[in-house]
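Dear colleague,

Thank you for sharing your sequence with our group. We've completed the structure prediction you requested, and as agreed, I am returning the results in plain text so they can be pasted directly into your records. Please verify that the sequence below matches your submission; if there's any discrepancy, let me know and we will rerun it promptly.
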Amino acid sequence: MATRKSVEDFLAQCEDTIRYAQEQITIGRQQEHYNATEYTDALEQLEERVNDLAHLALSCNGQQREQLHRMRLQLQQLQNDLTLDENIIQEYK
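Please find the predicted structure tokens below.
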């Protein structure tokens, strides 16, 4: 079973990843294709967090799974936003 601290630490990592991804969306919209490396890095970090979340959820109790589920929704929404923005940016190159 996952400890409360391990779940809290993981959720903090997710929050950091979300902030980074949101920054990259903002920068990507301003600079278009000039931050491609960071943009890709943000997508990779989001994917890694979603995968880690799935593994952690297997050893959590119901309340922890609910917290992780809400976080997964946020992470996946950002993945979608980054992917859609990247496609929009690519159209203008």
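Summary note from our side: Residues 63 and 69 are 10 Å apart (CA to CA).

Kind regards,
the structure core
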